[in-house]
Amino acid sequence: MDHADPPSAARARTLAEVDALVAGCFACPRLVAWREDVARTRRAAFRDEEYWGRPVPSFGDESARVVVVGLAPAAHGGNRTGRMFTGDRSGDVLFAALHRTGFASQPTATARDDGMVLTGARLVAPVHCAPPDNKPTPAERHTCAPYLGRELELLAPTVRVAVVLGGFGWQALLSTLTEQGWLVPRPRPRFGHGARVDLVHADGRTLTVLGCFHVSQQNTFTGRLTPAMLDDVLMAAREVAGLGAPPGPPPALAPRSGPART
């Protein structure tokens, strides 16, 4: 699947085919150079590991009712492990919350073969390569958009909620949904933590988009995003998606810490 290109995603018949196309993509020269350079030089803490160093496919339930939309893989997280949000501190926060709210089989994600299973949720991103300074360009987002678009088409029979982590993902998702025939209001709804937009497709389908601050260290270390705030959004997603309470014993949700800030 070497040298795949994003437009070929439209011909993918399954999510597994989309994932394979993603992993073989070389469409953005700046991102290709960066991801491969990081994989060669490595961080000292991981100097004995072999980095993935390729675009990182989405991860999770192929019949998901909830998609969690991130930004892009981390240079020493997903770009190292080969799995979205795995092996970095942002992922530590996200997977712990997914576990507390009944979506993840375990609270930590360290490697592709660690046994992590997501039920009812799938982690997707508008950009699949680690970008310099965690900042993809609008052109790179546009180039990668066909992958996200095809995933959403293949998930259409089941997906009911999109939890969007941060403003970059919010804009990317709404752009893709507009192109796919969803009736997105004009002016486009603004991102904010706790924002909610209920959309209707031209064919009558519905999708609820929920905003959440990104699980970046900049947000979690400063308290801008607390575990309780993240849990609240994910539990709201469960409710809207019709998933009910998490299975098994009641989850140990993070303690409340005051109102969310937008």
TrEMBL record:
<dbReference type="GO" id="GO:0004844">
    <property type="term" value="F:uracil DNA N-glycosylase activity"/>
</dbReference>
<dbReference type="GO" id="GO:0051539">
    <property type="term" value="F:4 iron, 4 sulfur cluster binding"/>
</dbReference>
<dbReference type="GO" id="GO:0046872">
    <property type="term" value="F:metal ion binding"/>
</dbReference>
<dbReference type="GO" id="GO:0006284">
    <property type="term" value="P:base-excision repair"/>
</dbReference>
<keyword id="KW-0378">Hydrolase</keyword>
<dbReference type="Pfam" id="PF03167">
    <property type="entry name" value="UDG"/>
</dbReference>
<dbReference type="InterPro" id="IPR051536">
    <property type="entry name" value="UDG_Type-4/5"/>
</dbReference>
<dbReference type="InterPro" id="IPR044147">
    <property type="entry name" value="UdgB-like"/>
</dbReference>
<keyword id="KW-0004">4Fe-4S</keyword>
<keyword id="KW-0479">Metal-binding</keyword>
<keyword id="KW-0411">Iron-sulfur</keyword>
<comment type="similarity">
    <text>Belongs to the uracil-DNA glycosylase (UDG) superfamily. Type 5 (UDGb) family.</text>
</comment>
<feature type="domain" description="Uracil-DNA glycosylase-like">
    <location>
        <begin position="57"/>
        <end position="234"/>
    </location>
</feature>
<protein>
    <recommendedName>
        <fullName>Type-5 uracil-DNA glycosylase</fullName>
    </recommendedName>
</protein>
<keyword id="KW-0408">Iron</keyword>
<dbReference type="InterPro" id="IPR036895">
    <property type="entry name" value="Uracil-DNA_glycosylase-like_sf"/>
</dbReference>
<dbReference type="InterPro" id="IPR005122">
    <property type="entry name" value="Uracil-DNA_glycosylase-like"/>
</dbReference>
<dbReference type="GO" id="GO:0033958">
    <property type="term" value="F:DNA-deoxyinosine glycosylase activity"/>
</dbReference>
<keyword id="KW-0227">DNA damage</keyword>
<feature type="region of interest" description="Disordered">
    <location>
        <begin position="241"/>
        <end position="262"/>
    </location>
</feature>
<keyword id="KW-0234">DNA repair</keyword>
